[in-house]
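Project outcomes to date are best conveyed with an example. Our students and postdoctoral researchers have been running inverse folding experiments weekly, and each run begins with a structure described purely in tokens. The record below, which covers 275 residues, was selected by the lab manager from last quarter's runs and is presented without edits.
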């Protein structure tokens, strides 16, 4: 691919061009670098609390992946490799050669693709409610069904999808946060939602990578995660030579909200081991 990169800054808010499209990101703090990647239908805003705290000790870079937040649409399919390349363009623009990368859900898939393509940039990775397997045939069929739902009524899809990411007992507790997530997701165009769904459907397994990866890995796992089953995540966590596990009871797919302090402290402790 060919990328055109040009960055400019407004306070800690940054923009760069990747394949002639805008990628939005923010930088806070100084020191060793932690990169925070959001998931499907999210934006860099999900990391506000994490960035505020981590930036006291580290340089924190959080990025809007293509088509999400304030980053522009790039292609009809957002492969994990494409999104990893967009992340690399930001790191190269900032002259960063080493970092710990934290990816929530789809951001974790992007992190694994980055680790596969650019291992020398990484000192550790966190799979935050994410995993290394590819979609099963059943899930691929469900992705296709979801695409049809999005094509028919994007807003209705968002309203129904977001609450299901939380543990059932958490939905009422975090009703305000759920509404905020819906507002974030509403800025994601139909084109971008479908491109991301297609990219996740097409992603390849990274189990082989886990077997050979030479850096520490952390799995953050919710016992009530409807998207990444605990049994699968725990089995994968046994594969790397150095793996840390944070297992959260009563938590679904949204630990950065459902268990904010626990997950923040887990990332802090992991970064201390790696950086």
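After processing, the design step wrote out the following sequence:
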């Amino acid at each position: 691919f060919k990328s055109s990169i040009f960055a400019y800054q407004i306070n800690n808010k940054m923009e760069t061009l990747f394949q002639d499209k805008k990628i939005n990101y923010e930088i806070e703090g100084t020191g060793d670098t932690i990169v925070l990647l959001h998931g499907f239908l999210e934006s860099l805003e999900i990391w506000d609390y994490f960035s505020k705290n981590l930036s006291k000790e580290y340089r924190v870079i959080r990025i809007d992946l293509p088509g999400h937040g304030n980053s522009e649409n790039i292609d009809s399919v957002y492969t994990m490799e494409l999104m990893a390349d967009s992340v690399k363009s930001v790191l190269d623009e900032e002259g960063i050669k080493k970092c710990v990368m934290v990816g929530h859900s789809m951001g974790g898939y992007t992190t694994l693709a980055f680790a596969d393509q650019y291992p020398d940039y990484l000192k550790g990775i966190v799979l935050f409610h994410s995993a290394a397997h590819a979609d099963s045939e059943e899930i691929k069929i469900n992705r296709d069904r979801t695409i049809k739902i999005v094509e028919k009524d994007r807003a209705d899809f968002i309203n129904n999808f977001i609450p299901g990411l939380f543990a059932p007992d958490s939905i009422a507790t975090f009703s305000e946060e759920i509404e905020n997530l819906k507002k974030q997701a509403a800025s994601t165009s139909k084109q971008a939602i479908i491109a991301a769904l297609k990219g996740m459907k097409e992603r390849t397994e990274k189990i082989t990578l886990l077997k050979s990866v030479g850096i520490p890995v952390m799995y953050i796992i919710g016992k009530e995660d409807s998207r990444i089953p605990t049994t699968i995540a725990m089995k994968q966590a046994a594969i790397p030579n150095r793996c840390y596990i944070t297992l959260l009871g009563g938590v679904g797919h949204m630990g950065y909200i459902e268990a904010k302090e626990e997950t923040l402290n887990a990332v802090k402790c992991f970064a201390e081991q790696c950086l």
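The mean pLDDT is 95. Strands lie at 8-10, 13-18, 21-28, 33-37, 59-63, 99-104, 122-128, 217-222, 243-248. The training component of this project remains on track.
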